Amino acid sequence: TEHFERWKRNCGILRIQVPATAAELTEITSELCRRNGFRSDVYVRPLAYKSSARIGIAPDENDSFSITALPFGQYFGGRGIKAGVTSWRRVDDNAIPGRAKICGAYVNSVLAGDEARRNGHDEAIFLTDDGHVAEGASCNLFMVRDGKLITPPVTDNILEGITRASVMELAAYELGLEVVQRSIDRSELYVCDEVFFTGTAVEVVPVIQIDHRPVGTGKVGSITNSFSALYHDATHGRLTRYEHWMTPVGQAVLAQAV
Hints:
The chain is of the alpha/beta class.
């Protein structure tokens, strides 16, 4: 439901109106999963758009939306990855707001990700125009330094991530870690203890190398390991405290099978 609440808010940036409530959209998605009979992890992609059959860039009042669900595996293969700071800058809020998943902004991510892979990395790290760390090409970023969990603020052109918020909740209630939202300098990534990415697709993935320099010991850190395990348990229903994160979808299918 939190994903659809954010989606509806961000649609407003482009003056796209989605008439269904977040609760209704959640039930549509649940029914979509039931009808497909999924028995694996699933990625859901809602898309809202202007739907007039015409050519032009002027917005109109014809709004539509779709929801796609498909089986999904591990985005980075469940391992520690290598990242590189890209020469491409993160789109600015006054150009294309990064806090919203606006389709055109993904060109920014494609350029950065392609450059990163061609330079021997698995993922890119964006800087803002003023040189602060923003996020990965497809994910939010956390850094562990001096026993604190540090992440860029939402004012540094990052996506206001649902998984990012979930990790901060886990930090407070499960690990007792202080979470600091502040700007991060590029060179801090070279001297910190741990770095990891978060996102709906990536979940929690450790970063063991940045710009061909080891992060910490060059191995997956203990705090990152803890977050990865906690997040996996919470999102698979093994931690009752976080049942509010989940929406059961399988009962109708099970009833029909009986």
